[in-house]
Amino acid sequence: MNIVTVTSENLEKEHICCAISSNSDCQVASKKSWLAERFSDGLVFKKGDVRGKVFIEYIPAEKAWCPICADGYMFIDCLWVSGQYKGKGFSNTLLNECIIDSKAKGKKGLVILSSKQKKPFIADPKFLKYKGFLLADTAAPFYELMYLPFVENEERPRFKACAKNPQIAEQGFVLCYCNQCPFTAKYVPVIVDIAKNKGIPMTVIKYETTEQAQNAASPFTAYSLFYNGEFVTHEILSAKGFEKLLTEKGL
Question: 145 forms bridges with which residues in the sheet?
Answer without folding.
Answer: 113, 137
